């Protein structure tokens, strides 16, 4: 009797994990497409696969990569910035890593902040060329 109950519990746990796992995969895909579309709608150039949870956005300001990273962190947004020599000189970019745990409110909060930070750097610190 105990073995039957144990097997039944394991069966139910596996079923729940599959359902929960699928739900998380769908949520991750939805979050990724939503965030990428939001950035593109705001006029940013976004690289990479449309379904990848890593969303690279071009910065075009190689001298401002570290500053952009610090400013985003100050605003409570963790990003990964990549610049020269890891990329071409004018292909500096920021990578946003999307998770299934992010909510729409979180993703909506990041997009305007990124826009504000970008305009801040473009208008206040223009290129010297």
Supply the number of structural domains.
1
What count of helical segments does DSSP give? Answer: 3
- What's the SSE pattern? HEHEEH
Strand content: 5-15%
The coarse silhouette is: elongated
Task: Describe this structure as you would to a colleague.
This protein has 129 residues and is mainly alpha-helical. It has one domain: Aspartate Aminotransferase, domain 1 (Alpha-Beta Complex), CATH 3.90.1150. 55% of the residues lie in helices and 10% in strands. The chain has 3 helices and 3 strands, in the order αβαββα. It has a 3-stranded antiparallel sheet with strand order 1-3-2, with helices on one face. α1 runs parallel beside α3. The longest helix has 40 residues. The radius of gyration is 20 Å and the shape is elongated. The C terminus is likely disordered.
In short:
With 129 residues, this protein is mainly α.
Outline the fold blueprint:
Layout: H1 2-41, E1 54-58, H2 65-74, E2 80-82, E3 93-97, H3 104-124
Antiparallel strand pairs: 1-3, 2-3
Helix pairs in contact: 1-3
Summary tags:
mainly alpha, disordered C terminus, 129 residues, 3 helices, 10% strand
């Amino acid at each position: 009797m105990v073995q039957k109950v144990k097997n039944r519990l394991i069966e139910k746990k596996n079923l729940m994990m599959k359902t929960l796992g699928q739900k998380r995969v769908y949520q991750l895909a939805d979050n990724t497409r939503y965030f990428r579309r939001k950035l593109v709608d705001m006029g940013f150039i976004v690289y990479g696969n449309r379904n990848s949870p890593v969303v690279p956005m071009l910065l075009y300001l190689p001298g401002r990569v570290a500053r952009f990273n610090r400013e985003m962190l100050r605003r409570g947004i963790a990003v990964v910035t990549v610049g020269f020599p890891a990329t071409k000189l004018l292909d500096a970019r920021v990578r946003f890593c999307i998770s299934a745990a992010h909510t729409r409110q979180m993703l909506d909060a990041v997009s305007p902040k990124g826009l504000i930070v970008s305009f801040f750097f473009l208008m206040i610190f223009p290129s010297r060329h």
